Amino acid sequence: MHRVAVIAVPPATTFDLSIPELVLGETTVDGHPGYQVRVCTARPGPIATGSSLEVTVRHGLEAAEDADTVIVTGTAARDDIDPGVLAALRRASAAGKRVASICTGAFVLARAGLLDGRHATTYWAKSEEFSARYPSVLLRPDVLYVEDGNVLTSAGLSAGIDLCLHLVRSDYGAATANAVARLVVAAPVRPGGQAQFIATPLPPETGTSLAATRAWALDHLHETLTRTDLAAHARVSVRTLARRFHDETGLSPLQWLLHQRVIRAQELLETTELPMDQVARLSGLATTDSLRHHLSARTGLTPSAYRAAFTRWPEPRRPEPRR
What we know:
With 323 residues, this protein is an alpha/beta fold.
């Protein structure tokens, strides 16, 4: 079981604090929990939050010493961060553990010196303050999450869900991550480079949402789909399609299609023994060369290596004892 320590830095953001346990805690692998999640803090007991809720944290920072992944959630703290928290984060990073932040938890990682010279992100509304405080960090204020080596950072609030789903995908594969997304009623795993916010967060109730067209496209990923095909289904012009697609997803139609095709290929590699050419065809990537190129660009693994890493075949049945 993968052990995760979630460090609460008061005043903590209660929504952020709940995300890792809600998402990672729903992960099961072969019927067993995929993660053990423990929330910890420098001084166990009641901690201050940014809301009217009172939160009691039972574990101290020793939980971070035993963890494989350490996550810092959102906080309003800037200069008054407990030195023990900073030291625990530095030790975790130096030991090669995965260290991550949700929302303004990036300020804590930066304070610990873990983001110097690295690409990172945080809640877009705090990006100017972050850049002023930590100019040595290569901030990307317009994306959902960033992975740079063993350090990951995410944008605000719901982007923490995207980050945790990305962790599940990295550890257990796309099929498991998408199953968790369905359990927590979240969007399927989104690419980290997707925009934090979009021009029209909620489509107007005028029948102009492209949700039906996206659902149709998912059912036809194995076919050659163009922007013209999508526009025809949505009964709009190609130009209108591009504008509305970006407004609703933060991606162009073709970027969105490619992302969904790679996810479909990952699921097929994890859950079937189909040969590579069939995986490429059924996912809409057409050829094994295209499959190899796009999967390697996304995961750093060839299709064969990905299948070997994330396929979990059923355990062989034990023979019945003779009577």
